[in-house]
């Protein structure tokens, strides 16, 4: 992962709490957690999942 400048992001309580503020466009709890992390940490999400693009996050694919 280091060669691609990819780092793991630990789950914080603020991330889990933010999940509950998201609209329920996406029902997958793990994807919702990724969305919350992306929003709070101001990071893009690398995904081909079209549902995630409904949220105000930068999607790369």
Automatic annotation (TrEMBL):
Domain PIN span(s) in chain numbering: 5-56
Listed Pfam families: PIN
InterPro entries membership: PIN-like_dom_sf, PIN_dom, PIN_Sll0205, TA_system_RNase
Listed transmembrane segments: none
Name used for this protein in its record: PilT protein domain protein
Lineage of source species: Bacteria, Candidatus Bipolaricaulota, Candidatus Bipolaricaulia, Candidatus Bipolaricaulales, Candidatus Bipolaricaulaceae
